[in-house]
Specification:
The chain is 41% helix and 19% strand. By secondary structure, it is α/β, with parallel strands linked by helices. The chain has 3 domains: 73-137; 141-210, Roll (Ubiquitin-like (UB roll)), CATH 3.10.20.310; 213-385, 3-Layer(aba) Sandwich (Rossmann fold).
């Protein structure tokens, strides 16, 4: 009897209810581009390794089967959510480390600012206190001037200072008008300036600085000379008393050398100096122009100027040589010509005339004839002029 085969019943598929809804899968966070590339690369490598293993098994060559190491993706690569959490944790860790340092730096800055503000406020407060104290004490009788001291100078007598330095009654060391006192002292032409020292509580000390002498000016007639200061102002007259057999010019030269100043003689008698006024005569200004434009070395060798007029200025050197300069023009060229003659005729020349630089002349010792520069002296003069 033939066996009849029984068919197995086909399992019934579960039917879905129409109203049943499939649960939504949670949306995976999107990985950054670099991590997505790493995940794809690892998955590709794993797939290639799996294919190699399958090929080796199919060939049946068990002896030559290589041992392959299949890389496994890390947990962060397989789970993007964990990778984001790990990155966030690392970032929070770095921030936690840097936060104390930032707090310390911020605290230090705030501390420095507070210190600077405190110092500034302290200085301002001291300044206010000092100003208030000054105005409170400047008229105080405790600092009233009861004694004025000064040291007399060579040309300023004590009685001159007493008469000129009038300190107002009730003046104190804090409110005394030193500018007015100095202006009053300058009425004496020998006073160049005055400085003051305050010796608390009641003493004012005055220090006088005298005018520095620049020249002694002797008029063409008479025996009266005037001192001229470095500021160009007349100071005071002086009588020239010549000894027996001595000229007035020689006596004046001795006084000028003693006082360490220059002598200017033969100045027109029409000049009327006034103490404290500036010398504005043309002959004096011509001499000053020569002195300013001469070199320091040449000017230091001049002991005397003669200035009867602006166009007729001459000088005498310390060697005794007289130089006729004329008017104050082409001064540097005239100096070079004089130096050339002095070098060529050492010790023998007594007079050099450079009124006309283009035609200079000279006179030698024991010679009454005035000579012009010869060919060699002209060449030397030209070289000096160049």
């Amino acid at each position: 009897m033939a066996e009849t085969s029984k068919k197995r019943p086909t399992p019934r598929k579960p039917t879905k209810r129409k109203d049943a809804k499939e649960p939504k899968q949670p949306k995976q966070p999107k990985l950054p581009k670099q991590e997505r590339k790493a995940v794809v690369k690892k998955a590709t490598a794993r797939s290639a390794a799996t294919k190699k293993v399958a090929t080796a098994r199919a060939s049946g060559d068990g002896a030559s089967k290589p041992k392959l190491s299949i890389p496994h993706p890390s947990a962060s690569a397989l789970n993007p959510k964990k990778a984001l959490e790990r990155r966030k944790a690392e970032k929070d860790k770095k921030g936690a480390v840097s936060q104390p340092r930032e707090r310390r730096e911020r605290h230090q800055r705030e501390k420095t600012v507070r210190l600077v503000i405190s110092i500034a406020l302290g200085i301002f407060a001291l300044l206010i206190v000092g100003i208030v104290a000054y105005f409170a004490l400047r008229n105080s009788p405790a600092f009233e001037i009861t004694k004025v001291e000064f040291e007399p100078t060579e040309h300023v007598a004590p009685e001159d200072v007493e008469n000129l330095a009038q300190v107002s009654a009730g003046s104190t060391l804090l409110n005394v008008d030193t500018v007015a006192i100095e202006e009053s002292l300058k009425k004496n032409p020998w006073v160049a300036s005055a400085s003051f020292e305050f010796e608390f509580p009641n003493t004012l000390r005055i220090i006088i600085e005298e005018q520095k002498l620049d020249a002694l000016v002797l008029m063409s007639s008479g025996t009266v000379a005037w001192y001229l200061g470095e500021d160009g102002a007349w100071i005071e007259p002086v009588m020239i008393e010549a000894a027996e057999g001595q000229s007035v010019n020689d006596a004046a030269l001795e006084i000028a050398k003693k006082d360490g100043c220059l002598l200017i003689t033969d100045v027109p008698a029409t000049i009327e100096p006034e103490a404290g006024s500036v010398a504005t005569d043309a002959s004096i200004e011509a001499v000053q122009k020569f002195r300013e434009e001469f070199s320091d070395g040449f000017a230091s060798r001049i002991v005397c100027f003669r200035a009867p007029s602006e166009e007729n200025v001459s000088c005498v050197l310390d060697s005794g040589v007289e130089v006729s300069l004329g008017e104050p023009e082409e001064i540097s060229q005239k100096e070079k010509i004089v130096e050339a003659f002095l070098e060529q005729h050492k010790g023998s020349v007594v007079l050099i005339n450079v009124r006309m630089p283009s035609n200079p002349t000279f006179r030698e010792i024991a010679s009454e004839n005035v000579q012009g520069g010869d060919e060699s002296s002209s060449e030397q003069t030209d070289a000096a002029t160049e």
